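Cast an eye over my tokenised protein here and flag anything odd:

===
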Amino acid sequence: MIQLPTEPKIVSKTGNQAVFEIGPLYPGYGMTVGNTLRRVLISSLEGAAITSVKIRGVDHEFSAMEGVLEDVIEIIMNLKKIRFNVFKDEPVTVMLNAKGEGRVTAENIVPNADVDIINSDQHIATITDKKIELEMELTVERGIGYIPAEQRQKEKLGVGKIAIDGIFTPIKNVNFKVENVRVGQRTDYNKVLLDIETDGSVSPEEALQKGSQILIEHFAIINKVEIPKNETKTEVKTKKPRKKKE
């Protein structure tokens, strides 16, 4: 029987980054477990992101903005970096208002009971004229993985709305390393050091648990494959040999 690992241990943790030790694993299982968890963590965890923006006085992403240091493309790149927790399944609209000379950050987004901003210090734009007022309408949605803006443009967007790539994954980085460990007389068993960094909307422990649960749910269904019952063998009657004529 293949030996199962013990419960994961946290080797180190700093802020939203943690290193987990998983083992001992049967020889060869280190790469299998580490690579599978990494792929699921990167691609399959739910998160929230801005999917469209409407900026007052701006018709498209190549428009010029008077009194703002950054161009629209750069502002959109900064909006992608804002991380959220969204407490509704439906898209949520939030407003951003800023007036006067100075930096505009995610803190300028008007508070909303349906949305929690993780990194409120994220830079968005710089107003260079004290008479300028910057107003944005942001659409925030929950989703999985990554959805490019090109795909969102097929959907019906309101007049003046600019589609944004939806970077939903709460995982900023994940890597793993496989090392050999001794079990009894054998030295070829594996352990996995799994390094997970999140955006703060979930903890590394939650991310690992959710990723594992996704795999469990998939394998639970695959495990339901029906094994055919042994069919009863039908007896084959053998013909008696004919007697030779004398």
About this structure: The chain has four helices and 14 strands.
